[in-house]
Amino acid sequence: xxxxxxxxxxxxxxxxxxxxxxxxxxxxxxxxxxxxxxxxxxxxxxxxxxxxxxxxxxxxxxxxxxxxxxxxxxxxxxxxxxxxxxxxxxxxxxxxxxxxxxxxxxxxxxxxxxxxxxxxxxxxxxxxxxxxxxxxxxxxxxxxxxxxxxxxxxxxxxxxxxxxxxxxxxxxxxxxxxxxxxxxxxxxxxxxxxxxxxxxxxxxxxxxxxxxxxxxxxxxxxxxxxxxxxxxxx
Amino acid sequence: xxxxxxxxxxxxxxxxxxxxxxxxxxxxxxxxxxxxxxxxxxxxxxxxxxxxxxxxxxxxxxxxxxxxxxxxxxxxxxxxxxxxxxxxxxxxxxxxxxxxxxxxxxxxxxxxxxxxxxxxxxxxxxxxxxxxxxxxxxxxxxxxxxxxxxxxxxxxxxxxxxxxxxxxxxxxxxxxxxxxxxxxxxxxxxxxxxxxxxxxxxxxxxxxxxxxxxxxxxxxxxxxxxxxxxxxxxxxxxxxxxxxxxxxxxxxxxxxx
Lengths: 234, 257
Prior knowledge:
Radius of gyration of chain B: 17 Å
Structural class of chain A: alpha/beta
Distance between the termini of chain A: 19 Å
Strand order of the largest sheet of chain B: 1-3-4-5-6-9-10-11
CATH architecture of chain A: 3-Layer(aba) Sandwich
Number of strands of chain A: 13
Shape of chain A: globular
Largest sheet of chain B: 8 strands, parallel, barrel
Oligomer: heterodimer
Distance between the termini of chain B: 24 Å
């Protein structure tokens, strides 16, 4: 199990190597304090980036795209910031990426929420949850793994994570191997994907208590392994 | 399966929790972030801060405590009280809140709900409805902390608020608030049947059985309470144990209360 380390590791004094540097895309008005605090507490350093230049200048080891809300306004802001192509290249180069909520949905070809065209990296579309008893889907729900993945190391099977969304990525059949976990609200939907260094979660680990911190700590460990040249299991 | 949530509510004025709490061993028992961290460790599924600062200068202090709370408690935080504009909502979210609850300002300016939802997504917009039984059938919406009547039908307003963009409703029975007479499950049922968004029950909790009733009889997705937790009458773990015993899905915290 990856332990949740204190802030001492973040400044490098307690670690034998410098802490991994994670760029977090800031393209809206949402809560970034929680991601900052959560990543710092698991031993990463954070750089918020608002433009292509800031992303390039950060020379980060990993990229987190957070976000809630609809895909259309998010794509508009990312386009204005010149970040769409740099993010696509980042993923094409198989550099570590964690999409949280909207940051996962943007990986698909488009969104039914407002018809927006998104990154088109994963075959499939973001669709409204089917047969959901309530919408938005707000609260803690079980994340059921479809295969083992180091992102979930040390976390109980079907552990609860916090969700707040009405839409989720519907993975096309040819990309079914990317599905790492599913969650049921009405019908099952994809709650985590993993393909090489490309990772995405529909829930909010930064708001999911100890298991959320464990997952982010596992991501930081994967980033560290990538920096060290260790291949990540698919 | 989606868990039914248990949510402690803290009244905050000028950066301090007002109303007593049972955490007598805290270094500073009136400090909202410290209390928030305690409730998170006890298994709270979310937290609500209700800002009741009388003076505008209390607002800056509020943003500071929201940020300190977001850095201490890794569970969702809703902030209500006094938000009247998109810019004010933006400031609260940037400080570290996940949701903002609108009450009086939404009744005065219903389009505010739509503007906030368009900017931040409907999942970030909670509309709080304070309702009182009318002599005939139904419930009336009250504003300004229950001081002013509006003539609005609570169930109709709930449906309108959702149409305008609310992603969640926080429904408080003014008749039951502070009485420990149990939640108004008739009110909760009327509203939860009228909308598809989650409904948070508030007002009147006395014991674990009331939380069960709010969900089973009222159709609530989440249950909020203040004094029974603050006064130590019941812990969150006791409430969740009763809900689990009644067959309701709850998140059982690994941390003992």
